[in-house]
Structure formats: structure tokens, C-alpha cells
Known about the structure:
The complex is a heterodimer. Chain A is mainly α. Chain A has a single domain (about 1-130, about 140-280), classed as ABC transporter involved in vitamin B12 uptake, BtuC. In chain A, about 70% of the residues lie in helices and about 5% in strands. Chain A has eleven helices and four strands. In chain A, the strands form two sheets. A two-stranded antiparallel ribbon of chain A has the order 1-4. Chain B has helices at about 40-45, 70-75, 95-100, 105-120, 120-125, 135-150, 165-180, 195-200, 220-225, 225-230; strands at about 1-10, 15-25, 30-35, 55-60, 65, 80, 155-160, 185-190, 205-210, 210-215. In chain B, the strands form two sheets. Chain B has a six-stranded mixed β-sheet with strand order 6-7-8-3-9-10, sandwiched between helices. In chain B, α3 (about 95-100) runs parallel beside α6. The longest helix of chain B is centred in the C-terminal third of the chain and has 16 residues, at about 165-180. The interface between A and B is medium-sized, with 21 and 35 residues.
Amino acid sequence: MEQLLQQIINGISLGSIYALIALGYTMVYGIIKLINFAHSDVYMLGAYIGYFCMTKLNLGFLPSLVIAMILCTIVGVTIEKVAYKPLRNSTRIAVLITAIGVSLFIEYVTMAIAGANVRSYPPMTGLMAESFNIGSINITMQQLITLGITILLMVLLQFIVKKTRIGKAMRAVSLDQDAAMLMGINVNSTISFTFALGSALAGAAGIMVGVYYNSINPLMGMLPGLKAFVAAVFGGIGIIPGAMIGGYFIGIIEVLVSGYGNSMYRDGVVFAILILVLIIKPTGLLGKNIREKV
Amino acid sequence: MLEIKNIDVHFGMIHALKGVSFTVNDGDIVTLIGANGAGKKTTLRTVSGLKKPTNGEILLDGKNITHTSAQDIVRMGISHVPEGRRVFPTMTVLENLELGAFLRRDKDGIARDLKMVFERFPILADRRKQAAGTLSGGEQQMLAIGRALMSRPKILFLDEPSMGLAPLLVQEIFNIIKDINSSGTTILLVEQNASMALQIADYAYVIETGSIVLSGTGAELMQSEDIKKAYLGG
Ligand SMILES: Nc1ncnc2c1ncn2[C@@H]1O[C@H](COP(=O)(O)OP(=O)(O)OP(=O)(O)O)[C@@H](O)[C@H]1O
């Protein structure tokens, strides 16, 4: 029982990372129907920016987090402006291929600049290095802080999307672009804002993963990116709470499979679950098929 | 006053509008009638800035808005109720109406107009917390019109507002259109239901395969033998 709880706590930490990345996939998909393959590389850049801030600038975790989020926002918005916006009226497959191109570009430019080798985050000090026990369950401050920041960011995101003017514009554009334009909504800036939000969250995920697992490399985005995408589809692509639930679900499943079964099957199980969900409920866990009445 | 001068619109190789010209005078109900695919919807979408013409110009109160963004056209006083209502289905009735006032910052004015819309369409007030996609067709049409009114338009475009509605509701929608007009809003109405449209129109244009072929007051066109044969089922 205690081992199970311990695993679930570890799963929640991992799930936080997946959820943060999944949100970016799901929001961008929701608004322009694009699977933004470069998203996982923005996450990777977040990890590198955090690494740079902590090792070269000797900044603490929180300032590094903020810088990573800001710089990733700029990167994400730039990717959209330079690579996707000119293709707004092209076929979806053209944009998809471009996204793959952007992803490879970022990965290999990072390799060229930072080197292909694995780098290790500095060991945490102070509060971040603490941990405590409840019974025999060990909880690190890192885990708590990761979870706390993730929840804070999600609450903030929900607030922006539900309550603010730009959030309402995001929802309107994702539901019906033409109708949104007829309301006077600037579709281009709304799309940019969506990339900005998603990229900021990916940046946060990147630095948190660096802190949590220590090692980072230019291709580190691939598998987590894929799993976060699975999380988004699992929850219902385009649906924000779906991505959150999906992220935590995948994170917990993954840790449980490694803990009780065989960690070799970890990724297989995740994808098997995706296939199962898509067979049973093609729109994902929270996906609904609202048919408009005529 | 809205003046459309000689506009051409292309979709790739398709020449959808061929030198379309017409005028909408302030305070009027003007209708554009024509068969399926004649170019009515394209005309409205072009004036609203959703589609750019390849030629010609569009003037609103003398200002050239041919290359103005859809956003600024809304700001300048044109509001467009698209074909098929196009309400935001998963958003509530209230959120839909608020989006209609997206460009406005005058909180008090918005609140007053919201009240006005709820008075005009009491059913929307009852359903304000309900998702727009769950409304009936007629209610969605009312919501779409109410949403468009929330931007305080000088000119209201209505694309096939009677489509798919029961006859009684059609009558109601036409009464609402007349009512909105008499409170000072100019109306440009696109309809397949030509007889209803001509009855309320001050002026009417007939469009066929991308060109205006006939125009006149609503009463004149109702008397025209050609119109009777082609559009009024007689
Ligand atoms: N997005 C588009 N792509 C290609 N052709 C289009 C497009 N939209 C309209 N057309 C063409 O432009 C012409 C005019 O169409 P439009 O929709 O304006 O007609 P309409 O009179 O509004 O008819 P309906 O009542 O059926 O909507 C048609 O020949 C149509 O095929």
C-alpha cells in the first residue's frame, strides 16, 4: 500500500510535466488544427535555458523558471510567425510537414550550439534539496514545488481562458474562425497568444524536468513530447482540462507499470492505452460531439 | 451609405462575382435575392472583409474599405449574421452575446445593449447560462442576430435568416428584422425566400451567376413577370 502511494506520488510529478506539455499541444490543435511537432523542442529549449541560467548565471530555480518561460514564449511565437503563419491557407499536411521540419531544425541547431552530449543540472540546494517522510513515504520538496507550480500555472491558464477577453477570443477562434472574425476578433494575434501560452508552459516543464531528472540533451523532447501528445489525445484534443487529466493519467500509469511490471513495457502500455481509448471513444475522454442544430 | 462598385471576386479559377455594383442607403432594408450559388453569400463576405475582391471598391460613408480588415470593418459599423447562424456552440448564450461586443470598451453601454437584446429576445434571457449549441434553430437565429446587435452596427447584414425555420418562425424573424430597421439600423438582407424579402425591402437587387441583373423597389420587383416566374414560384 505504501509502495503504491509512493509510486503515485512519483507518477504525479511526472504527470505534471506531461500535463504542462500536453496543454500546449491541445491549445494549438484547438485553434489551428495543427499538431505542433516543434512543441516538444520548445520544452527541450526550456530545459537548456534553465540549465544555462542555473550554471552560467548562477540564478536560483525560480528566476530561472521565469526566464525559461519568457524565452520559450518568444521562441514559440516566433516559430508561429515565421513558419506557420505564411501557410495559413495551405493544406494541413503542408503545415504538418513544416512543423516536423521546424522540430528537426531546433534540435540540430541546439546540438550545434550546445553540443550533442548529455548535460547534468546542478544539484539542488536549500529548500529544493529537502525531503520529508510521511510514514515510509518519501516526498521531496522538489516534487511538492513541481506540483505546486504546475497547479498554479493551470489555475492561471483556466482563468485566462475562461475569464479574460483574450481567453474568450481564443475559445471563439478555436470554435469558428470566420464567426470570430465577424465579432472583430483579430485571429492572427489570438493564434500568437495561444502559442505564447503553450510555449510558456512547455518552458516551465523543461526546467522542471531538468531539475527532477538532472540530465538533459537536445533530443530529450521527443519521447515526452510524444507522450504528452498522447495525453492530449487521451483527454480529448483541443480540450484544456482533458490535457491536464491525460497528463496525470499517463504519468501515473507509466510509473506504476515501471514499478510493478517491467519498465521495458512502460511506453508500450501508454500507447496501448491510447489505442484503446481511441477505439472506445475516438474523441477522447472529455471529447464531445456537439452537433449544431439546424 | 454603403456603395459597392464593380467588385470582382475569384476563388482560384472560379469567377464568383463579376463586376457587382449596388448601393445600400441609410435607414433602408435592402435585399439581395438570387438562386443557389448566384453569389449572395460571397457578396456579403467580401463586404465584411472575410474575402478580398480582385477588383473594384467598397465605400462606407465615402471611405474606401476595400482593403480594410474584417476587424476594422466591424469597428466601422458593419455587423454580419452569417449563413447558418454560426453561434459558438460550446459557449453560453451570454458569452456569445458578450463576444458580439468584443471591440467595445464602454461597460455601461454594453450592459444597456445586453438588456435591450434580452428585451427583444426574452427567450435568450431565460437561456443565458445555456450552451448556445443546445438551442433550437430559431433560438440560435435570435442569438446570432442579438450577438450582431451587440456591436451597435449602423448596417446589419443578414444571410438567409429564415433558412431551415418553420413558417411561423420565419414570420417572426421577418417581424424582428423590420423592428430592428425601424429603430434605425440599416439592413442588407440575403434571402432565398424572395417573396418574404421583397415584402419588407425598400430596395432589392437580383443576382444571377455573379452579376446583378435587375433592381428596383421591393414592390416593383414583386410585380415583375420575370421575378414572379424565377423566384416567386408563379
Ligand atoms: N470557398 C469557396 N471556394 C470555391 N468556390 C466558392 C467558394 N465559395 C463560393 N464559391 C463559388 O462562388 C459562387 C457563389 O457562391 P455563393 O456561396 O456566394 O452563392 P450564394 O448565392 O450565396 O448561394 P447559397 O445560397 O447556396 O449560399 C458559386 O459558384 C460557388 O461555387
